[in-house]
């Protein structure tokens, strides 16, 4: 009995310490952690599909017309199984801060809008605006790593000979994230690290906003007793990602082609703007190229977004993040109280 009581006391003490740590972590930091973990897990789960999608979008000659499974076989034959994950290190290095910033900024912008406009409806329009601004913020902060991820995924390497296939010169052989960042910066400076950011921003504002809009709108129609059901969250996240990606997909193709222009053997590798590149793709490659890899994207985006939203919600529960409007309502109430007291004292 004494031993059991001592064990219970120890457990209670440990639980108290953990609760104290959890309570001391600011809500924004908890949301950063939840978003980062969600993004990293989701991205790694679909890395092979993302690699093939990039190769299709950038029209690598040796991957044209062989299909998804043919591409998988070619990559494994040429680079081994790890080739399916080429560039995923840069992808995770980007997606962890990107997803962390994206989710946290979404919640933060949402609070600021509620505080600034207390009478605003808590409906899907608020989610659309907050999600759009959050997406733009996250893109600007992490874009260079997205560029690196594309360039690394574009390279096809034969491990036995360390031969890089399809590149214009040895100058464009990249040996990892740091090497790629250094070479791009050395050649084109900061501007070179943001090649293709235009279509990213044009695409992320509607995509990010629509993704949160669809997700929250669908969750709002779920019966209260099923709202915490993981299967329901997976379904809502899947449909949200599918709808958002379809609407903005052509801009993703434009972005990828801009990111690898410098690696092209053709004389047309000179830097082009977003709409110029869009026009070139439409005229020279046909409108279908603007949707190249979309079917792969459907296979990728459904599990990716679904896993991302689900892990994020699970992490928020685990970290005991308060209900989404709770901090806003508390802060708003405190602000109003302070305003009233200052009026009285004046």
UniProtKB/TrEMBL annotation:
Q: Where in the cell is it found?
A: Mitochondrion inner membrane
Keywords recorded for this protein, A-Z: Membrane, Mitochondrion, Mitochondrion inner membrane, Repeat, Transmembrane, Transmembrane helix, Transport
Q: How does the record say this protein sits in the membrane?
A: Multi-pass membrane protein
- Keyword Transport present in the record's keywords: the answer is yes
Q: Where are the Solcar repeats?
A: 26-112, 122-221, 228-318
InterPro entries membership: GDC-like, MCP, MCP_dom_sf, MCP_transmembrane
Q: What protein name applies here?
A: Mitochondrial adenine nucleotide transporter ADNT1
Q: Which GO terms describe its biological process?
A: mitochondrial coenzyme A transmembrane transport
A GO molecular-function annotation: coenzyme A transmembrane transporter activity
User: Which coarse location class describes where this protein primarily resides?
Assistant: mitochondrion
Q: Which family does it belong to?
A: Belongs to the mitochondrial carrier (TC 2.A.29) family.
PROSITE patterns noted in UniProt: SOLCAR
What cellular-component terms does GO give this entry? mitochondrial inner membrane
What is known about what this protein does? Required for the accumulation of coenzyme A in the mitochondrial matrix.
Organism of provenance: Platanthera zijinensis
């Amino acid at each position: 009995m004494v031993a059991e009581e001592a064990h219970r006391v120890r457990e209670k003490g440990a639980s108290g310490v953990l609760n104290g740590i959890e309570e001391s972590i600011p809500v924004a930091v908890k949301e950063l952690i939840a978003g980062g973990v969600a993004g990293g897990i989701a991205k790694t789960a679909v890395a092979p599909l993302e690699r093939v999608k990039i190769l299709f979008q950038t029209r690598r000659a040796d991957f044209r017309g062989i299909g998804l499974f043919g591409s998988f076989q070619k990559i494994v034959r040429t680079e081994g199984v790890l080739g399916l994950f080429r560039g995923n290190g840069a992808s995770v290095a980007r997606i962890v801060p990107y997803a962390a910033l994206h989710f946290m900024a979404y919640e933060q912008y949402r609070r600021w809008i509620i505080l600034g406009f207390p009478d605003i409806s808590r409906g899907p329009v608020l989610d659309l605006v907050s999600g759009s601004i959050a997406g733009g913020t996250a893109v600007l902060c992490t874009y260079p790593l997205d560029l690196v991820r594309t360039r690394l995924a574009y390279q096809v390497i034969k491990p036995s000979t360390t031969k890089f296939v399809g590149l214009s010169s040895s100058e464009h052989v990249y040996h990892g994230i740091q090497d790629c960042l250094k070479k791009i910066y050395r050649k084109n400076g900061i501007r070179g690290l943001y090649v293709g950011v235009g279509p990213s921003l044009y695409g992320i504002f509607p995509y990010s906003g629509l993704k949160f809009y669809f997700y929250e709108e669908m969750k709002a129609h779920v019966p209260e007793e099923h709202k915490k059901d993981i299967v329901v969250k997976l379904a809502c996240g899947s449909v949200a990602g599918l709808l958002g990606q379809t609407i903005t997909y052509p801009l993703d193709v434009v972005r990828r082609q801009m990111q690898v222009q410098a690696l092209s053997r053709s004389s047309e590798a000179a830097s082009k703007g977003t709409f110029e590149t869009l026009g070139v793709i439409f005229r020279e490659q046909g409108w279908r190229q603007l949707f190249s890899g979309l079917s792969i994207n459907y296979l990728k985006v459904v599990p990716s977004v679904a896993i991302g939203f689900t892990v994020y919600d699970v992490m928020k529960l685990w970290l005991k993040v308060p209900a989404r409007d709770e901090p806003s309502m508390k802060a708003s109430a405190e602000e109003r109280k302070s305003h009233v007291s200052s009026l009285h004292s004046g």
